[in-house]
Amino acid sequence: MEIKKENLKKIFFGVIALIIFYWALQNNIEVMSWVHNGIGLFAPIILGLAIAFLINIPMRAIEKTIFRKQTETVKKIQRPVSLVLAMLLMVSIVILVMVIIVPELIRTILIIKDSVPGFVIQVQNILNNLLEHFPDLANQITVSIDWAEIGKKILEWVQHGAAAFAGSTFSAISATFSGVFTFVLGLVLAIYVLLQKEKLAMQVRKVFYAYGKERRVDEVLRIVAIANKAFSNFFTGQCLEAVIIGVLFFVTMSLTGFPYALMISVTIGFTALIPIFGAFLGCFIGVFLILVTSPVQAVWFIILFLILQQVEGNFIYPRVVGGSIGLPGIWVLIAVTIGGNMFGVLGMLVMVPMCSVIYTLLREDTYKRLNEKHVNNKKIEGKIQDNKH
């Protein structure tokens, strides 16, 4: 069999890749440490590109909506004006959420502080009534409280806490300044990228075409375009879905007379940015707040949440988010599960659009291979029906 030079290259680089992969598995701790250090080194660049991507979504919409008529003057001002408006919009949303949550949170803490003694008495009365109806439980449950030991433990905790706080103050301040510095650098980089995005994209394309094969570069750029569309549609749909679920909770809670309607609705809407599981975190916070005021209402709130969650999961999310990225529900669940286990909340947000890209490419390749084999969908469906019988 004739072995071509191109095949020898593929075999050589394949063997090298397997050796490197095996070595990485054997030294995974060192590899993860290098990756962590590399991410820390390029943190401002990564953060800047992430900020640029997020700001570009509303900025692009503003450009298409406001600056439809293209004149020489409009071409000069549309980018900086759209960038400023997009940044103001995002900052305004953050400030609005803080203005709604912070005063409500302070008021809620004060109410909870005043309600805790009554809540404890309520719990004690429930336990006393339970023991009266079931006297056998009183013989099995023995509770002894050593207040001296509790006071000793509290004093030790305060002493250790004060020492730890004093020791970590400098590191906390240093980390804060480092985080602010990284964010400022990332923001400056994001602004530069957004103002010059067409020019930068053209420069990257030229480099790719200069050092790569045209067919492969075309395929890479096509995948990048699919990824950009998937990520943009996902974040847009996720934000829209969070607003819808927040408004839905506020309306239903206000009509049914639940306390803390505004704060809980905003919290659920904010946590709903995390796919699938985020709303349950908001539900937990809502149950805790309502529980102190009225345990019965807390139970009714759980029932209300489950009903609205079914509406959101079956009607809102598939149409707003799932439809926008073209990803079936089972794929969304798999993506969220894997991303959450690997990288937490950030992994959930990134893995869903990434799976959308993989799903799109796999679907295209599958249909391409079926067409090459002259197999159509009706033939496959017919075989599936035959197997059922």
UniProtKB/TrEMBL annotation:
Chain segments annotated as transmembrane: 7-25, 37-59, 80-102, 172-195, 239-262, 268-291, 329-362
Keyword Zinc annotated: no
InterPro entries: AI-2E-like (IPR002549)
Subcellular location: Cell membrane
Alphabetic keyword roster: Cell membrane, Membrane, Transmembrane, Transmembrane helix, Transport
Main location: membrane
Single GO biological process annotation from the record: transmembrane transport
Protein name, entry field: AI-2E family transporter
Originating species: Holtiella tumoricola
